[in-house]
Amino acid sequence: MAGFLQLASLGLGLWLVRRALYVYKAIRNIRGIPVYISLIEPSSICSAFFPKGTWNPRITHAWDHQERYDEMGAEAILFVPLFFGVAVVHSGSPELNRQLYTDIKTWPKPARALNLNFMGENLLTLNGEDWRKHRKITAPAFDSQIYADVWKVTTNLYCQMMNSEAWKSGDQHYFDNFNDITTRLALLVIAACGFNMNVPWDGPFLREGFEEPLDSVIVRVCKVLLPRIVFPDWIWKAPIKGVRELQRSFLEMQRFLDLEIEAKRKELSLEKEHDTAESKNLFSRVVLASQTEGAKGLTHEEIRGNLFIYLFAGHETTAHTLVTALALLAAYQDEQERVYRHIMSVAGDRDMEYADYSDLTPVLHCFYEALRLYPLATNSLRIAAEDTSITAPGLTKDGNNTVFIGKGFEVIVDMVGSTRNARNFPDPIAFKPRRWESADTAVMENFMAFSAGPRLCLGRKFSTVESVCFLSNVLRDWRFDAKLEEGETATLWLERVMKPDIGVTLKIDNTPLLVTRR
Ligand code: HEM
Questions:
Q1: C-alpha distance from residue 175 to each of 18, 68, 161, 419, 517 (Å)
Q2: Among 16, 61, 160, 172, which one is most buried in terms of CB atoms within 10 A?
Q3: What CATH number does the domain located at 2-122+378-445 have?
Q4: Ligand 1 centre distance from Cα of residue 189 (Å)
Q5: 505 has pLDDT over 90
Q6: Any binding-site annotation on 222?
Q7: What is the ipTM of this complex?
């Protein structure tokens, strides 16, 4: 026993020395940034270990970021964890973050940020030449043809929704979780424009050979993405009932994508003319482009990886921003009235078309403003590939504004800090869609909720076209209100219902909305 205790104390001692050396090295190699000593690393990686509702360093940090930055007198903070995790700079500086996003050679993604690859490597999980190859093959699929299609499909789904039980009769409806509606919409839009699967609004997403509707499988898979990323593969093979069921959903999704890719490959190899309506969807285009590249094309697994990312990135993000925008408009009635009048001035009672998109800019501004306040992708990790220094306004206490980051150390883009940065977005907590009318290009340049630089979100316009189309239609036909409790103001209502949950993305679930026919 005494021997064991001695051995344990020796092990602990060595570990403490190693940790102390690491802390020393971090502080020596990252200079100019105020240091905050924490017990463990305040990142999403650790937050996965904290049950919902308990103290969560990541959420605390993301939400109270402004206070934390103000306290430290700088827009970037070096968090040094004493006991567990990696020393990492959290940056709420839009200018610094833009440099990280733009200079992808100096600032690649670190290995631990590249783990969304269990369905195959993809654009999100690669760096360097491999990433370039994927981007070259997949990016051309996002063009004006796809966007026109997104508009058409969204309009069609909106009309079906209006004819559904929940909407067609009565002039007022209360939805206790409007997220269900926007999630269904975004999923069906990506299914149609991405995979040519035209699923009816009220119908299940059935596929031959699959027992369960695929929409349930996809939604379940997206819900458990964070634990799937954080925990190692062997855990997912454990003979535990709940784990097995989750793993089965992942395998079903993989089987679905495999079958689709094989079928598409066969179909494309038989067709001489590829310019059919079918070949205009994202899926066909990625398979076709890959086939055209021959040996330089993507492998089966890589195609599957990218398609999975479209399904995941292509619906949750848009769905949550849409519901956030509607909740904010419900709280800010004057803004809703203004945007309603604008939609009427553009379209009156006629059907809106993709050609109207550019005239509906105030609707787009509401979407941007909602995304600015609640940016979906809360954090992006980058690692210094070499010793480097960065200069940006507001970075350091002494006003020198230049910091040094040693090779191998990480910076996390604190998206909430960045999009709520008061220097760039005055009165940052207020919902002010009109701030986007500013002629100052810095407003747009410093807005990085869709990332920036060469790795700018590939689905940005896909998402804005879908959103402007849906918001314009629904706001023209319905007024959105907050159902206030006695004595509650709209601001208090917002505080009550807009409770962010930060996992792989930031989500606000269970948003209650009252709609009244106009
Ligand atoms: C509100 C909607 C959306 C938001 C806020 C958003 C945000 C982002 C962000 C921040 C990144 C960079 C992530 C990083 O580098 O760590 C990204 C990348 C990406 N997004 Fe989106 N996204 C949205 C919608 C979409 C849609 C609809 C699609 C596809 C249909 C999509 C596909 C992608 C892809 C493929 C990448 C990887 C690009 C690359 O690394 O080259 N996104 N997105």
A1: 54, 36, 14, 29, 14
A2: 61
A3: 3.30.43.20
A4: 16
A5: no
A6: no
A7: 0.99
